[in-house]
Amino acid sequence: RRTRPMRETKLVPRVREVMETKVVCITEDEPITEAALKLLRGETNHLPILDGDHRLVGIVTTYDVTKAVARPGDRLCVRDIMTRKVVRTTPEEAVDIAAQKLERHNISALPVVDPQNRVIGMLTALNLGKLLGGRWKA
Amino acid sequence: RRTRPMRETKLVPRVREVMETKVVCITEDEPITEAALKLLRGETNHLPILDGDHRLVGIVTTYDVTKAVARPGDRLCVRDIMTRKVVRTTPEEAVDIAAQKLERHNISALPVVDPQNRVIGMLTALNLGKLLGGRWKA
Ligand SMILES: C[S@@+](CC[C@H](N)C(=O)[O-])C[C@H]1O[C@@H](n2cnc3c(N)ncnc32)[C@H](O)[C@@H]1O
Fold first, then answer.
1. Which one of A124, B13, B125, B127 has the fewest beta carbons within 10 angstroms of its own beta carbon?
2. What is the CATH number of domain A13-132?
């Protein structure tokens, strides 16, 4: 199901206008403890994972680090807990389409990529929630 | 700073209309591993912490569990990583006021409490983001 609501295109904010541009990233061969430290230092729940060419190859979240606590065993590296199929957005995408992606996949952030699949920002449910602050102003 | 935007009161959705009512909770004497399991089973990032009378006394998130991974040491129980001062909302609060609370405190969920401080729901940035889906519809 893919609904594209009809709308006044020029009135819809674009992802570029609300995304965060300071993004902390990690690589898949780093230890989980390093991911945990970066998540805390960056005060974020989401770290995009980049390959050697700075291209997006996965995402790791505080939710995934929690897996390592719940079921210890031999998970040691980011690659043991990361999600490889990343739902993403672009700077030009309309924010309501991005909001639908979050809803459909039950996730709270989308890496924002350029045409070379390099991460140029992060869009979170919190960024979208902020847009609501002005919605019912008189 | 507490801004209450002027608005058509009857048009503003209330927290009750968008909150989640299935809430997984925990107590502060449970081990962190149990919190991790509940977070994963509930597919959530937030667990409200209840006392013996089912009243809200704190909150623990995947972010807090990540702290235990980043800096191990002797953190064992939920009480060692929980946040005690919980920003909260009520079912009758307007969603834009709740959105402002999330923004001001840089958090992504608010427990919804009744007058006896018992948790009756959870409001997340994702619930608010969903409201945006319909915003620019023609
Ligand atoms: C399904 S969510 C459930 C928890 C919660 N709703 C949240 O937003 O984090 C948790 C999983 O989603 C994954 N995830 C988060 N953002 C993602 C994205 N943009 N694309 C694909 N998976 C993502 C994480 O790696 C994690 O394993």
1. B13
2. 3.10.580.10
